[in-house]
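Handout for the seminar on molecular recognition.
Each group receives one record of this type.
Step one: identify the two inputs.
Step two: read the structure output and locate the region that could contact adenosine-5'-triphosphate.
Step three: write two sentences on what you found, then compare them with the reference statements printed after the record.
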Amino acid sequence: MKNRIGIVGGGQLGRMMAFEAHKMGFRVTILDPTPESPAGQVADEQIVAQYSDKQALTKLAKKSDVITYEIELENSDIFDNLIENGAVIHPSITSFKLINDKYLQKEFFKKNGIPVADFLEVENKEDILKAVKKFGYPIFLKTRRFAYDGRGNALIRKASDIDKSLNSLQGSGLYVEKFVPFVKELAIMVARNTEGEIATYPVVETIHKNNICHIVKAPAPIKKNISKKTQVLAKKVMQQLQGAGVFGIEMFLTKRGQVLVNEIAPRVHNSGHYTIEACITNQFEQHIRAITGLPLGQTDMIVPAAVMINILGGRTGVAQVTGMDDALRLPQTYVHIYGKKDTKMERKMGHITAIDKTIQNAYKKAKRARMFITI
Ligand code: ATP
Ligand code: MG
């Protein structure tokens, strides 16, 4: 039986994938440069090496029937050699290459009738000023690649912000995007297996703080017709992309009820962590099913409401968790800690999911639990 999975990246996403893979009897090898990475701690084996280390990748391929990844890879060329030698990688590198470059992603969607915010490729101050003439202030300057947790974004509010923004984002290609005055941010997880079967999860609301996903409310407190429309849009997006696995689609909802696609992540996603306690099949199990050619599981929620709050680091130093006893005294409240050795400001150290009859109640409990936890 083909039961060996290799994961490039040893963070929390890999860790939660490894838990689910083990449940179904798979063997998991992680490739990550940090010894005893969050995923490495719970996998069968970790290869300690850089993601771009060719020898290490070859070793991973030898130990794996299928390879997947949980990080924003800088360069997918590192996989070319493996593919030539017969390695199976999901999601496919074609979809990865498209998604990895946010500008190509946006162009692709525009061409295929998927609504996105207006955007323009820019190189210098002159180009940005031209874009401002078209779109007005404020305007988002974004890097095409290597961006996550808002690290590749700068909001330009006025002409005097331009130089500073350009300096802060130098190094990779840039583009600007019209600012969307959204009323809510929405997200949806979608899965496709190697047979082409597609399954969509419920639409959730995501609340970001300093560009980092902070709170997720499931299901999103929005009108039924908006939720339907979002599901249809997500399916349409997925039909145009290639590749097996779970994908996270981030969207904006405008005052007029328009839904715009912000970006796609070619992997399990922070906005899908609630599925662990709240859905029939959680996103991590679904990903493992999708990449190994198994049938997809049902995606419905098994509880009326769930709220997830991230546990972000609030200081720099060795991580030490306190407050678990108080937090876990709250009914139907679950605390996940990722096993990262060091805590840092804003670093994702864990998350809390609370379930209840209403979003309001779940939110109250999750917030309360979050106040108890320090790390
Ligand atoms: P993440 O890894 O958290 O998804 P990212 O680095 O990929 O972040 P984006 O998703 O592009 O960055 O942007 C992060 C956040 O910034 C969005 O979730 C949204 O809150 C805000 N944002 C981005 N683009 C726009 C826009 N055009 N208009 C308004 N807000 C925006
Ligand atoms: Mg994003």
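Reference statements: The domain at 4-89 is CATH 3.40.50.20 (Rossmann fold). The first helix runs from residue 12 to 23.
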